[in-house]
Amino acid sequence: MMKKQLLSLLLCLMLHPVFAEAGTACTEKPQSAETVQKAFQLAIKTREALDASGAEVALVGRVGQDLSKYNLRYSHMAFVWRDHPQGRWLAVHELNQCGTANSALFNEGLANFFFDDMFAWDALIVTPSPNMQAKIVALLKNTAYLKHVHEPHYNMVAHPFSTKYQNSNQWVLEILSSAMSEELFTSRSATQTWLKQANFKPSVLRIPTLKRLGGRMFQANVAFDDHPNADRFAGNIAVVTVESVKEFVKQQDSAVQELTVSLQ
Asked: Model's pTM, two decimal places?
């Protein structure tokens, strides 16, 4: 790794602005040297791919946990954009606060984005068309609107068409809705109505009753009471995932580009 690249990323780590004060990890254990190195390496590869794309903004997904039993690869998505032309790439996203039932918005460097406990060291990059990028950038500059769309009551399996909770990928989707519809929605319910009309298809996870009960009892950031009873009893839990957001973007924007970067 070149010293100049490492210094640049360290500066991003130390100087990144945040919308809220909170950590992403639920333990105070220090990161291993290997984890730090891999986070920087994946951040550099992602930055190089973003630079080569010529994009202003993209969607980036990471593999924070093993979701293969649900036929999913990526667990968490963020907007990644430059704060000014030729400037740093920053990740803007919602994060659950240490396993609580709360979340906050963050604006941080790429290395930070990959410092969370990663299951695999690869990233998904989804780049919308230039026209769509311009609309997204306008929204990302409107921090008051980003907070307006944010629901701090976090639920990992929040129902896509309920305003009771929100998960991190759902926040990304609801911001995208304003860019795609060209309407600055004044409420989450209006956003979700548009998503239904636009034929957004959430991922449906098969979660048995006992597993749902265990998750509800022992994890503050998991709840199922916003899902229709028929779906809950059948164990069919609809959720906004990285994959469902990606497919919806491709459905709405025919010029979208997709690629992956990996340390494997």
From this structure: 0.87
